[in-house]
Specification:
165 residues; Rossmann fold; 5 strands
């Protein structure tokens, strides 16, 4: 049963989120991916959010660019945490999407990660789930340890080869 719902405003966002979906798989977190537009399919967006908790979801990740109303619409219709991934698109290259989600009215919070940063959204969703799942907590710790080891290895290589190589 999926614990994370990933909702895309458009199928054009799929390539930008693939690495985050792969990370959810590595963390052993089941998820579902849907294309639901806050503007073009508002009834479906409302139904998705209203039924999410009863369907076993723990976190929703909303992926949208430009006006990026998807995160706010979902957050207004569910008690679950909603994480927004603003997508770089349009004339403002994602800044509009960031600001739309940062400026949510009091009482309807939406967590916002960086532009196109689905990996951080996946990690944040994982950290929320890890509060009640020891295996996911272990997987996140292992992920972070690997990141640290990779940085140490790269630093050692730099010290041996120097920056010129």
């Amino acid at each position: 049963m999926p614990r994370v719902g990933v909702v895309l405003g458009s199928d054009s966002d799929i390539p930008k989120i693939a690495s985050g979906l792969e990370l959810l798989e590595k963390l052993a977190i089941d998820f579902e991916v849907r294309i639901i537009s806050a503007h073009r399919t508002p009834k479906e967006a409302l139904e998705y959010a209203e039924t999410a908790k009863d369907r076993g979801l723990k976190v929703i990740i909303a992926v949208a660019g430009m006006a990026a109303h998807l995160g706010g619409v979902l957050a207004a219709s569910t008690p679950l945490p909603v994480i927004s991934v603003p997508i770089a698109s349009g004339a403002l290259s994602g800044i509009d999407a960031v600001l739309a989600n940062l400026q949510m009215p009091p009482g309807i919070p939406v967590a916002v990660v960086g532009i196109d940063n689905m990996k951080n959204a996946a990690l944040l969703a994982g950290q929320i789930i890890a509060l009640s799942d020891e295996q996911v907590a272990h997987n996140i710790t292992a992920f972070r340890e690997k990141q640290s080891a990779d940085v140490r290895r790269k630093d050692q290589e730099l010290q041996i080869k120097s920056y010129k190589n």
